[in-house]
Amino acid sequence: MRYSRLLILSLLLFPHFALAAPYPNPINCDNFTDCVTPLVNKAGQVAIIIAVVMIVIGGFMMVTAFGDPGKLQRARATLLWAVIGLIVIIAAYALALAFKEIISGI
User: Which bin fits 68, alpha (ψ -120 to 50), beta or left (φ > 0)?
Assistant: First the structure.
């Protein structure tokens, strides 16, 4: 019992005795920009799709308002915030690309 604890402790303290096989990099990126670029691209695509869907919903709300001032105001607000969101998404994507160029130049 004492020798088995000593053997386990020695294998933990000296990992070169474990004869572990090399493990390939699961992320498949060598630097920061290679890792972040796909994430930024996918997030931008999803955000643009959501913004376009909100613009369509706002347009549908405006068409179905039938002159009701409350519904028309809500539809205008939906369209306004969807367009503002789309502008923010495009600006954030441009800023991310600028940061990518700055970081990759370092």
Answer: beta
Q: Would you list the domain boundaries of the chain?
A: 29-105
For residue 68, give the DSSP letter: -
Model confidence pLDDT, tens digit, residues 84-102 = 999 999 999 999 889 888 8
Residue with tokens 């939906």: 78
For 7-56, the three-class secondary structure string (H helix, E strand, C coil) is HHHHHHHCHHHCCCCCCCCCCCCCCHHHHHHHHHHHHHHHHHHHHHHHHH
Q: pLDDT for 22-69, tens place per residue?
A: 777 777 888 878 888 888 899 999 999 999 999 999 999 999 999 899
Whether 86 and 58 have beta carbons less than 8 Å apart is answered as: no
